[in-house]
């Protein structure tokens, strides 16, 4: 009897886990999340898409928008195009995006935008594409990418040397060898002095103990 009860509970647990996973995953097509002008915003799907098949195209938009549809995307099987936009800010928020599997185009094509903030978070961990170019960033203003953004995109690529086709500059500071050598010298000297002081104190303590013994 107990065995039957345990078996039934195990089956129910597996069914509940499977149901929860199925409910958490929402599959969408890239066309449901693509917009080609401001009028298309109202036609965006209201589904909390987690897995998207097909390219997502965001084009010809002006001003900040309420587009929370992109927040839930975790996997994109296609490319992301953001082109010809003005003052979108971080309206296209892809902080939960983890995977991009592009086919023939670069994984990201960010071109001819003014006032766009690339809102892709550190969760992005895998990017693959059949194109020779991994990321395309041209004609954007401000034409700057932070060190963390560059690092995330670089490390996420399946290629050891991902290709950035870009006229952006990276907001990073060149590594100055003399600067680190200076601090290495200072730290080494400080450690040496502390070590000498500790050795001196240890001998001083032993002398005091020897005198007391005598």
UniProtKB/TrEMBL annotation:
SUPFAM superfamilies for this protein: L domain-like
Keywords (A to Z) from UniProt: Membrane, Signal, Transmembrane, Transmembrane helix
Occurrences of domain Receptor L-domain (ranges): 49-117
Keyword Transmembrane helix among record annotations: yes
Tagged with keyword Glycosyltransferase: no
Pfam family, one: Recep_L_domain
InterPro entries cross-referenced by the UniProt entry: Rcpt_L-dom (IPR000494), Rcpt_L-dom_sf (IPR036941), SPS2_domain (IPR053079)
Organism domain of life: Eukaryota
Signal peptide residue numbers: 1-24
Gene3D superfamilies: Receptor L-domain
Transmembrane portions of the chain: 182-204
Name of this chain's protein: Receptor L-domain domain-containing protein
Organism: Caenorhabditis nigoni
């Amino acid at each position: 009897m107990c065995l039957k009860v345990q078996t039934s509970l195990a089956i129910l647990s597996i069914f509940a886990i499977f149901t929860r996973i199925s409910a958490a995953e929402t599959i969408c097509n890239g066309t449901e999340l693509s917009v080609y002008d401001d009028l298309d915003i109202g036609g965006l799907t209201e589904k909390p898409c987690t897995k998207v098949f097909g390219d997502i195209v965001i084009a010809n938009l002006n001003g900040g928008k309420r587009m929370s549809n992109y927040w839930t995307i975790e996997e994109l099987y296609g490319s992301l195009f953001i082109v010809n936009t003005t003052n979108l800010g971080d309206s296209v928020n892809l902080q939960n995006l983890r995977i991009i599997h592009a086919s023939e185009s670069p994984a990201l094509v960010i071109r001819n935008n003014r006032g766009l903030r690339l809102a892709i978070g550190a969760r992005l961990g895998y990017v693959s594409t059949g194109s020779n170019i991994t990321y395309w960033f041209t004609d954007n203003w401000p034409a700057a990418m932070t060190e963390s953004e560059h690092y995330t995109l670089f490390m996420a690529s399946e290629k050891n040397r991902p290709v950035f086709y870009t006229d952006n500059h990276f907001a990073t500071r060149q590594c100055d060898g003399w600067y680190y050598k200076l601090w290495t010298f200072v730290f080494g000297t400080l450690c040496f002095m502390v070590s000498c002081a500790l050795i001196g104190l240890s001998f001083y303590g032993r002398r005091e103990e020897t005198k007391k013994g005598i």
